[in-house]
Design goal:
about 15% strand; about 45% helix; alpha/beta; about 475 residues
Length: about 475
């Protein structure tokens, strides 16, 4: 059933490599919720596992018990999976050590030739309080699994920080034991287009970019778009109908990823109100999370989960790091569903050319370009040049005007690409007013660099640039099609 997997060529090649390895392999698959981690593994192996188990979501049970109920349910369901794959022992499992001993016995009873493929999905959910799960798993792998040369043991989880801290970067009993990690990121524009076409949706690239702005290339979200309907009709049905799936997804996203989800939610919502990101100190003040290790760990978790990105502001010390919300689904939800709710069930279709949607498209296109910065670099012919990419803004003062630049590429060859993003339905036309603002930006940037950088004005836009008396200001034009490469 590999034909059901769209894109993910690199990941499929890695799975094939691991199958061919002559020694035991422990693979940790992680990434943002809904990116298709489980689907990839299940479909690649056509659900023909030697043993497979999916942990029970603890979210609905947490208010009913202090942890003991969840612990017993997880063990009981693990026993059910063992029996499903051939275990004859139907006595209750007392703890995780016994659970893994039974798994050893089951795998020992299986065929001796060929690869034994074991898949445990949502592994972090098994690590309930006081359960001793991680110690039992470490013992299982170190004592038995790592010596089973025909074993491929795949563990998967959306709680990215747990996966990284306890498996990939483990400093305890599993130190150096994870042979491979696979971070499943959201789709690129190229992959999104291929996925939509595979599903029978006939969006042009203008609408495909907008679909990306709404979903961030998250495969599961895209799967709710139905063939035969326009983009606007799909958006209204998925986001704005009374029982639309995405109405509840924002809450599910946080409760599935983080134990203290309220703190994470506050950080994300503070960042969602600040276009250019914030420093740790400002986040602490606005989100009500004290400075220190707790905030650092929370921010790290948000970055690892593909919700937040970090950057430095051009010209400032790299000791000052900024955090920016870059998950496009969260940005869209906060702006259109949470902060400005509507009862209009055809809101998107009714407001296609409203100033609000036009403004949103412009901001969201900047985020899309930032995610696809490698494609931008390739399009302007600097893919092989060492470069740092920043959003950049300066407030200025009475003596010097401020400026905001959508994306700035600071190159090792002492050239700076000043990138402006414009999402329009036809070739972009530079007006006199915009030319004035552009000249100001160039002047501020040259002044800040002391004239030590050559500034190349680069326009990233949907269809191209209309020639007029101001268009000569732009030295490079990157069209939407380049972002799909």
């Amino acid at each position: 059933m590999k034909s059901l997997i769209v894109a993910r060529e690199k990941e499929q090649a890695e799975l094939k490599r691991l199958i061919d390895e002559p020694t035991a392999q422990l693979l940790a698959v992680y990434g943002r919720r809904r990116t298709g981690k489980t689907f990839l593994v299940r479909e690649y192996f056509n659900d023909t596992f030697t043993f497979k188990h999916t942990a029970v979501s603890p979210l609905e049970l947490q208010e009913r018990d202090d942890g003991e109920l969840i612990y017993r349910i997880q063990l009981n369901e693990f026993a059910v999976s063992l029996r499903k794959y051939g275990s004859k022992d139907d006595t209750p499992i007392k703890d995780w050590f016994e659970a893994f001993h039974r798994l050893e016995a089951l795998l020992d009873s299986k065929r001796k030739k060929g690869k034994l493929v074991v898949f445990i999905d949502e592994l972090p959910w098994l690590d309930t309080p006081r359960a001793g799960f991680l110690s039992a798993f470490e013992h299982f792998w170190n004592d038995w699994g790592s010596g089973k040369h025909n074993l491929l043991f795949i563990v998967c989880g959306s709680a990215t920080s747990w996966m990284l801290d306890n498996l990939v970067n483990n400093k305890g009993g599993l130190y150096g034991r994870s042979n491979c990690e696979m971070h499943i990121h959201p789709f690129t524009l190229n992959e999104t287009e291929r996925y939509l076409q595979w599903r029978g949706l006939t969006f042009d690239r203008y609408d495909t970019v907008q679909a990306y702005m709404l979903t961030g290339g998250v495969a599961y979200y895209l799967s709710y778009f139905k063939p035969g309907k326009s983009l606007a009709q799909n958006v209204d049905e998925v986001f704005f109908s009374a029982d639309g799936f995405m109405q509840k997804e924002y809450d599910r996203l946080f409760t599935s990823l983080f134990a203290d989800n309220e703190g994470y939610r506050r950080i994300v919502e503070v960042l969602g109100c600040n276009r250019y990101g914030l420093t740790r100190e400002v986040i602490s003040e606005k989100a009500g999370v004290s400075l220190g290790g707790t905030l650092s760990n929370m921010l790290k978790s948000l970055v690892q989960s593909d919700l937040v990105s970090t950057y430095w502001n051009f010209g400032e010390s790299k000791k000052t790091q900024y955090y920016k919300l870059t998950d496009m689904f969260c940005l869209f939800y906060l702006g259109f569903v949470q902060r400005n709710p509507t009862t209009n069930r055809t809101f998107w279709n009714d407001n296609q050319n409203s100033p609000r949607l036009i403004s949103w498209r412009g901001r969201a296109f900047e985020d899309v370009c930032f995610v696809h910065q490698q494609q931008v670099k390739r399009a302007v012919g600097i893919e092989g040049v060492q470069a740092e990419v920043y959003p950049w803004h300066t407030t200025g003062d009475a003596a010097s005007p401020g400026a905001q630049i959508d994306m700035l590429i600071d190159r090792a060859d002492r050239v700076v690409n000043l990138c402006e993003m414009k999402f329009t339905q036809s070739n972009y036309t530079i007006s006199k007013e915009y030319d004035d603002r552009l000249r100001t930006k160039i002047s501020v940037l040259l002044e800040m660099t002391g004239g030590k950088r050559n500034v190349v004005v680069t326009l990233v836009t949907t269809y191209g640039l209309k020639t007029n008396m101001y268009s000569g200001r732009v030295q490079r034009v990157v069209t939407m099609d380049e972002l799909f490469k």
